[in-house]
């Protein structure tokens, strides 16, 4: 062992045991009614992906969750709206706990729930699971991005939809993980705007894989998957600009069809498509709804656009994390800037009338 220490873990300062997934699930159980709700929404999203259900899928909510109370207040506002518009659109709340960083920065509620570098991940996992439980018990479906491949063992049973982000779509680890997820999965194009990597990810995830992972007991295991065909591509723009206009949508849909995949896709109204200006999400959203309506008016049947993503919070904009957390503004994002609730509700209701 002394010899091993000379060559191993030279840059590791500490290793701490974490609660096993099975222990967390046992401590925070889910009743049959909630699971029926999750299954029902996953099946509805499957129908949208295949074009059987013509309703657009809308993933809407905060860029990231840092305050579960504010997130719950948002969910309580979204639930009646989602219910009242459900005959023309499927609305799922964006509940993101993990944030990929270009260099460094706060990595999300699971990684550092206190936002002070204490990295109490056991508490972060509990907070995340409790929020997902509470939102699902409202009757509202939840969506999240998965960054760490072990996270689904802790919270995956409560998610109706999962995203693989622009920085991880090309990752073999995430493609393998997606092949075994029980949810539909959206792959974003890469940060430079390359859509081929997302198509390759969909093809990869559709196939069986065998890889190293953990089981519910937290034991390192050989995981074998059957493949996941409930996947789709998400256009989020890139370093070369936006990619949500009709010509781009048609081009990418054709590439999907050539690859033997369903020629339907989602558009992220934020990120490069909004030029990183949260107010421009309104412009992108309006264009997408127009494209969907025009496709129907032309008698084209289903639109190539299956849905959209909006980054939205109780209040508009963003804020840096202050040294004194009591100075945090309530309901304002600490990552990407968001549109406010009033704008969000207006966009959803106007789209409902147009649809």
From TrEMBL:
Q: What domain of life?
A: Bacteria
Question: Could you tell me the keywords of this UniProt record?
Answer: Amino-acid biosynthesis, Aromatic amino acid biosynthesis, Transferase
Q: Which reaction does it catalyse?
A: D-erythrose 4-phosphate + phosphoenolpyruvate + H2O = 7-phospho-2-dehydro-3-deoxy-D-arabino-heptonate + phosphate
Q: What is its EC number?
A: 2.5.1.54
Q: Which Gene3D superfamilies match?
A: Aldolase class I
Q: Where is the DAHP synthetase I/KDSA domain?
A: 43-348
Q: Amino-acid biosynthesis as a keyword?
A: yes
| Gene Ontology biological process | amino acid biosynthetic process; aromatic amino acid family biosynthetic process; chorismate biosynthetic process
Q: In which pathway does it act?
A: Metabolic intermediate biosynthesis; chorismate biosynthesis; chorismate from D-erythrose 4-phosphate and phosphoenolpyruvate: step 1/7
Q: Entry's InterPro entries?
A: Aldolase_TIM, DAHP1/KDSA, DAHP_synth_1
Show the GO cellular component annotation of the record: cytoplasm
What GO molecular function annotations does the UniProt record carry, in alphabetical order?
3-deoxy-7-phosphoheptulonate synthase activity; identical protein binding
Q: Which family does it belong to?
A: Belongs to the class-I DAHP synthase family.
What's the stated role of this polypeptide? Stereospecific condensation of phosphoenolpyruvate (PEP) and D-erythrose-4-phosphate (E4P) giving rise to 3-deoxy-D-arabino-heptulosonate-7-phosphate (DAHP).
> What protein name does the entry list?
Phospho-2-dehydro-3-deoxyheptonate aldolase
């Amino acid at each position: 062992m002394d010899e091993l220490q000379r060559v191993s873990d030279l840059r590791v300062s500490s290793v701490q045991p974490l609660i096993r997934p099975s222990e967390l699930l046992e401590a925070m159980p889910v009743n049959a009614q909630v699971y029926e709700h999750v299954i029902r929404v996953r099946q509805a999203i499957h129908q949208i992906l295949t074009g059987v259900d013509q309703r657009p899928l809308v993933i809407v909510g905060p860029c990231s969750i840092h305050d579960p109370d504010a997130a719950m207040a948002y969910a309580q506002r979204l639930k009646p709206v989602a219910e009242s518009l459900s005959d023309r659109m499927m609305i799922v709340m964006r509940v993101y706990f993990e944030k990929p960083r270009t260099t460094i920065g706060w990595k999300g509620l699971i990684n550092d729930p206190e936002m002070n570098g204490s990295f109490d991940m056991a508490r972060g996992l509990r907070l995340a699971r409790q929020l997902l439980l509470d939102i699902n018990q409202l009757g509202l479906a939840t969506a999240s991005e998965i960054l760490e491949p072990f996270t689904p063992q802790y919270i995956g049973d409560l998610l109706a939809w999962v995203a693989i982000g622009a920085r991880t779509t090309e990752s073999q680890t995430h493609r393998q993980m997606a092949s075994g997820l029980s949810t539909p999965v959206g792959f974003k194009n890469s940060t430079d705007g390359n859509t081929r990597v997302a198509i390759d990810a969909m093809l990869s995830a559709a196939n069986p894989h065998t890889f190293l992972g953990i089981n519910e007991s937290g034991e390192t295991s050989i995981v074998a998957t059957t493949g996941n065909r409930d996947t789709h591509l998400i256009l989020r723009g890139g370093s070369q600009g936006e990619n949500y206009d009709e010509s781009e949508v048609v081009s990418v849909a054709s590439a999907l069809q050539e690859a033997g995949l369903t020629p339907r896709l989602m558009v992220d109204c934020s990120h490069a498509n909004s030029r990183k200006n949260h107010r421009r999400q309104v412009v992108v959203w309006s264009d997408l709804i127009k494209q969907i309506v025009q496709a129907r008016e032309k008698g084209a049947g289903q639109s190539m656009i299956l849905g959209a993503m909006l980054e939205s919070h109780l209040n508009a904009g963003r804020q840096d994390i202050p040294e004194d957390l009591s100075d945090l503004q309530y309901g304002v994002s600490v990552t990407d800037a968001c549109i406010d609730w009033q704008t969000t509700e207006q966009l959803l209701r106007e789209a409902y009338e147009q649809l």
